[in-house]
Amino acid sequence: MDLSVKVGNTLLKNPLVLGSASYTQTAKGLETYIKKGFGAVVTKTVTIKPLEGSPNPRAFWYDPEEKTMLSGAEALRNPGMESVAKAVAAVKKIAEEEKCLVVGSVAGNTVEEMSTVAKALVEAGADIIEINMVCPATGPHLGPDYACLGKYWSAKPERAVEAISGIRSTVRVPIWAKCVLGNLTSQDFLNKVDKEARPDAYAYVGGRLPCLVIDVETGKPKFPGNVLLQIEKKIPISPSVTGPVKASTMLHTAYLARLTETPLIPSGGLRKGDDIIEALMVGASAAQISQAVYRDRDVSLTMVRKMEAFMERRGIASLQEIFGISLQYIPAPPLLRVPIITY
Ligand SMILES: Cc1cc2nc3c(=O)[nH]c(=O)nc-3n(C[C@H](O)[C@H](O)[C@H](O)COP(=O)(O)O)c2cc1C
Questions:
Q1: Which of 38, 128, 162, 198 is deepest in the core (most CB within 10 A)?
Q2: Residue pLDDT, tens place only, 136-170
Q3: DSSP conformational letter for 320
Q4: 30 lines ligand 1 (CB under 6 A)
């Protein structure tokens, strides 16, 4: 059974990527998850100097019993470039043995700063660089060290182009751009960044609404009645639900798959093997998980087993066969905009 997927020209042994968070800032943390079956692990986002970030509790369950809503309020707390580069170098051999790629996540207030961090991580052994252009918890209010980190770099397409092109001229590895979803879903943003910077993939975190669910047995979408009314009778009805972020991650992935040729690596509420299958069906090349790991440190092993069971059940030899198969059933453009109803 072949679980491997391609993200552009990069082959991953499976589509499961451990998203960036504090569990991957030390050699011990990286080694733990490299050995748990991931196709790739992303380091904690790294800056040149250590950053104190926010006080504890940094990983915070709003619902500690149910564990569905995790706040990752770390404000880019990290031990700095030297420390994480040492950790990457320490696990390089194990990662090679496990065929797990190491992705170095970088942040900086200037392109030079980000390039310096990227160079240190690649020299230490990182196979891919992910640029953190997404962190919402940064900005000048936290002081000069935080002024232009994270979300600043995807707020305007020209900044994203500057960051991706600048880092690409420093390191010769694939570059994943982790962007704010609201910016990515703009065709103007994609037109410019795709054409002028050509990232090897976009990573992003799904929103809350609107949503999409795929039946993985058939590859077909399951639409609620209000959405069917929109499709069949062209009557817009506001989807007045709140719910898990996963279904929104699916819809945004289906939407982006129509707007860009650049490979997509979503995250947001994915916690089961079927969630990864669903993401591939709506056009993701791979998928990241984070909160599922806080819930269960062995979740990746279960997810890989579930993906294998799915393939066996459906007689699928290679996971690449299901890439984007649900898009044919989803109206174009997918139902991304929440309609405004006037009575
Ligand atoms: C405690 C915590 C810390 C995080 N730190 C980072 C980070 O440093 N860099 C980054 O790009 N994403 C960071 N994330 C975001 C995750 O990588 C992931 O994109 C997001 O949590 C959505 O996936 P999930 O629903 O599976 O958690 C963090 C998330 C959590 C929960």
A1: 38
A2: 888 888 888 889 999 999 999 999 999 999 999 99
A3: G
A4: no
The whole-angstrom separation of Cα 219 and Cα 322 is 8
Nearest ligand 1 atom to the CA of 271 is 26
340 part of a folded domain: no
20 lines ligand 1 (CB under 6 A): yes
Strands 213-215 and 264-267: unpaired
- Domain count of the chain? 1
Distance 280 CA to ligand 1 centre (A): 20
Q: Quick check: 209 pLDDT over 80? A: no
State how far the Cα of 156 lies from the Cα of 182, in Å rounded to an integer.
Answer: 11
Q: The domain spanning residue 287 has which CATH number?
A: 3.20.20.70
Q: Of all protein residues, whose CA lies closest to atom 31 belonging to ligand 1?
A: 72
- Which pLDDT does position 236 carry in this prediction? 62
- Exposed, middle or buried: residue 82 (CB in 10 Å: 0-12, 13-18, 19+)? middle
Comparing CA positions, the residue from 43, 53, 38 lying closest to residue 303 is 38
pTM beyond cutoff 0.90: yes
Residue 341 confidence (pLDDT) above 80 = no
Residue 342 has pLDDT above 60, yes or no: no
Query: Would residue 139 count as lying in a domain?
Result: yes
Structural domain for 139, as ranges: 5-212+243-329
Alpha-carbon distance of 219 to 149, in angstroms, equals 39
Evaluate: CB of 246 within 6 angstroms of ligand 1: no
Q: How far apart are CA 154 and CA 135, in angstroms?
A: 10
Token code pair at residue 37: 């079956």
